[in-house]
Fold these 4 entries.
Entry 1:
Amino acid sequence: MRVGFFLAMRQLRRSGKGTTILITFIMILTFLNLVVVSGLLVGLISGSFKQFREAYSGEVLITSADGRDYIENSPALIAFLESHPKVSAISPRYSVGVQMLGTLTDLPEKNEKPNRIGITLTGIDPGREEIVTGFSRFLKYGEPLEEGDDGYVLLGANMIKKYSSFADANIPGLSPLEDVDIGNRVRVSFSRSGGGVVSKEFIIKGIVKSKVDEISTRAFITDRELKKLLPVNKEQVQAIAVKTDYAYAATLVAETKEFMVGHAARIQTTDEAVPSFLRDIETTFRILGNALSSVALIVASITVFIVIFINAVTKRKFIGIMKGIGISPQAIQFSYIFQALFYGVVGSAIGVVLTFALLKPYFDVHPIDFPFSDGILVATAEGAAIRIAILLAVTLIAGFIPAKLIVSKNTLDSILGR
């Protein structure tokens, strides 16, 4: 191995700089293909997970259990969370499904569909919501909702045809409000559980827009005003977003479940609250990224094989002479393996620097703007290490095979070029 390393270093010094740079560049591109391409594909979905956590759920999301209209024992749960040392902020939310009428002056003509949509009306504490999610950053038009804004509502952009991202799509069941804008009045109404209808008019104060559906497809008023409209269970909330350390979320969920024994509620980390179909998409994208990376890996291995093979073939005479003067075939084989290893190590090292020092910080600050998420680059040190190991293993095999083929030739035939 010492002799092989010595021979490898001599050949690398004497080889053309252009060839060395070209092969190293191919290895860099291969590494980036292995890490960056799959990382960006997975990042499309991971970006939506991150937005869901930062814009809506917090690190822990508590909602009403299946078949229940509210979180049981809500006041005590809120007090527990507010006093928890690991909880930095919470945002209790009230919500109810309502019908929203956009045209209050003209009645629809015969066979004309009313300018009405079904929407979730959510009551929030603007101050608390701002701490947990930075809600004001989603305001695209108009003015923000403030404490004491009775009679005002913020509407999700996708619920108004003028601002909806789906206004030009003919989607069955999705009919945004028409001829509705900031300053217009809308009427919301919902049925009481015991009979009767609750109805109230609001002035649209602003339009909120986000790639998180829970914001762009809802209406928001102050929690105090929605509590007035609710006929019963005025102190029982429908959702609580909890801000805590991401790593502590699972522990907090376990502690909260223990506190809520005997009371119905769905308590989840933000990762558990994400819809399962998004997880399936993430898995599919990961598989697709690995498949594309495998193609690049095969191309790189073939390139290294060809380069080492041509290098060995052009030096058959020298290989024969080295064997003739007593250098072992294994040492000669090691020299070519070390050359291949050099290309793989240098290419991977430069690729790691580019990925973690340049590309990942760049995409964290400037995510890719997709219609459903802000795409980021998902790359971890553990994942990169695994890909480096795979790349080096393939490179070593690509360097060993041609060296073995040439070195195994008859020594005299190699010297004479036969």
Entry 2:
Amino acid sequence: MTSPLLYATQGTRIFLTGLKNKIKPHRYYGTADDVCKLTVADCWNGRFFQTSTHNFPQFWTRDFGWCTQSLMKLGHEEKVHQTLRYALNRFKHYNTITTTISPAGKPFDFPSPAVDSLPWLIHSIRLSSFPHYEHRGFLNLQVQRFFKDFINPVTGLVQPDLQVSSMKDFAVRKSSCYDNCMVGMLAADLEQLKLVSPFEKYNYPALLQEHFWNGSFFYDDLTKKGYVAGDANLFPFITGLIRDEEILHAAIQAIEGAGLAEPFPLRYTSSRRHVHFVWQEKLMPNYESDTVWAHMGPLYIKLLQHVDKDKAALYRQRYTEMIEKAGNYLEVYTKEGLPYKTPLYTCDQGLLWAANYLTL
């Protein structure tokens, strides 16, 4: 369990950095490509790729996982491997795999242990062909711990009564579609990497369709409420678990119909009405409800390129304009398309996610 002192320390640091961002935001000059290349370069600190240059100058497991494939395509194999070496050594030292590692090098979970930490770490190892042999014992132990901590052995799904951190880490969800996509991705990667896998008897593509697909869109979680969630209808395809073209077209139509790609992609939901949040969300209201998130945007555009090239090009152009206007790659925007800020938080800048824009 993460200590309250560590939470307080990290929270104070982020608040002070956000205040600095508000007073004097950093600006790169040039085209959107120039801005994003400079951003990625500045996220390399000589030891590892940090998630951002401002609020989160540290290793975040899921964020690095989102960017690994793009970083490899951009020619950063050596730095990707060095980042994984850094993370694995810190995790092994503390015998845990967590959502993040503090700037001082200590792993911790925010706001609670996350289902997607191990899957994204393993996925980064596989995508980058990282030589993981010396870490096999540690990774196998963590896989077995993951299964015990998170998975219902009868169904193969994430236990619905657990309150876990996730991509939308302020939301309280009951075995979310996104989290179960992560489990399915993990199962596939473990098989390819020849690591221990307790998932062999489960068919995750079938489980996703059985428990989450309603014929028009994927439910956010097992409560099966009638709203459309961006992440729930993106990651079944990003992970390669669902390859059915009809389902893909229907999910994209649901995203577009719910307005989740406006003014540019992608929003988690169109409102906060049906979603419950942890208490920390009160400090950053609407941070993860109807806001536009720049981590999902390029991933959605990449998916849309297979379905509607013209619309994908339109959204890419909106990102280009947004990046050039800010002179930076920002974290999150309001539903009106303005940079998100509250009295206690100013949206991050200089995100490693810029790598995904560069590979559109």
Entry 3:
Amino acid sequence: MPDMDTLVSLCKRRGFVFQSSEIYGGIGGFWDYGPLGVELRNNIKRAWWKTVVQDRDDMVGVDATIIMNPNVWRASGHVSEFTDPLVECKTCHHRFRADFIKSDACPDCGNKTLMAPRQFNMLFRTFVGPVEDDASIAYLRPETAQGIFVNFANVQQTMRKKIPFGIAQIGKAFRNEIVTGNFIFRDREFEQMEIEYFVKPGTEDEWHARWRDERMNWWTNVLGIRAENIRVRALSKQDLAHYSRGTFEIEYNFPMGWSELEGIASRTDYDLKRHIETSGKSLEYFDDETKEKYIPYVVEPSMGVDRCMLALLFDCFHEEEVRGEKRIVLRFPKALAPIKVAVLPLARNRPEIVELAKKITAELKPQMMALYDDTASIGRLYRRQDEIGTPFCVTVDHQSALPGDEKYDGKVTVRDRDTMEQIRVPVAEVKNVLMERLVT
């Protein structure tokens, strides 16, 4: 596994992640995703959505707004309780999370001049409408969960769902963190993938355990995270959020140590009950079969796209020596790789070779992310594609495109990223060969 600096360098050099507003010196806790980062994130989100929504009969999706009625956040407790302990150094005036400090000395200047901790609310405030006053205050959502809770009755009734069932959502969230760091691990703007799974009271423990196992299975079998780098841990009672009666955390062994990737919380009926009390609207569920009416309990698997991407980059990073040269490979699962195939002309000064390579690229694009590249020698092109995780390269040469060549065979070379095996494939069969290999 590389260190953080090595991975950050690769991400910028190859177009995965850029510092937001970099030409102006950046802004802490915000990141822009480049061409390859966008593709990787989209593939992660597709894989998650397919598993938790598309492949299931008991799950549907929503897409709620980022700005909601501020009473949503008062009801959920975020306005009053969404805080972290903040300490400030009297000498250098740097600020830190109190629970991150190991001693009574300032981590930056070393002076023992830290002020007493105070609670800092992490909600981002804004205003709705033309007048900036207390009546127009609104908040950027700190989580996507509440957009699901306030739509529970709408979804249940319109989709005629019976409990147990779940609602999934992917979307941006915003937290004004006191301290950010470890690259894209802790951000102020990030993207969540959350499920609220509604169950009958009394069955929540069973469903909590089932979702713990299902989510671990997704990380190891769908994303391919190595078993030695991932674990599940039950939080102690003192570490639980105020709404939780039990939480499992799925953690990854990053260079900075074991850190959370996903939380699976048993949220009881806390959120629905709070919205009922605050709004005065009923969010109860009526069971047609048993004629029971109750407030459902909730199990919540919640994860961040950004942390998932970071774990995947670390886990897929491999460095090896090939014929005396360093070779860096990102061994993404094929379904997650940003680019599926690169088509490379062996001689860019031969129009026939270039034309055929571009034609093959155009034919592949409707089925997969394919790119054409002729900006370096073939060896450098291979290394470049290895470093961004492209599973296959197709090389067009004299034998492929020049019928007058004595070795002409009308075939191209298909190279495998992981084994570096090269096979000759007829031009007409390239698409089918790649399609078969991409699903295995």
Entry 4:
Amino acid sequence: MVGHNVSHSNIKTKRRFLPALSPVKLQSDSLGETFKLRISNAALRTVDFRGGLDAVLVKAKDDVLSPRALKIKKQVKAKLAEQPAA
């Protein structure tokens, strides 16, 4: 997002609003690995709410994921496809 810094004298200068990214380690249940990712705080809350990294990646659309997250998603889907349905 973009906006303005507004000074005391009401002079407006352009600024950018960047997302609050946090470096986190997330555990993949199906792969049994830990991945270091930089995700937004809102995404971290979503991971907690949905029950883990695997659930979020499988449900997410490909166009909103980073190339690294797409690679992890592909591995998770392959691992889940080879496991027999219980």
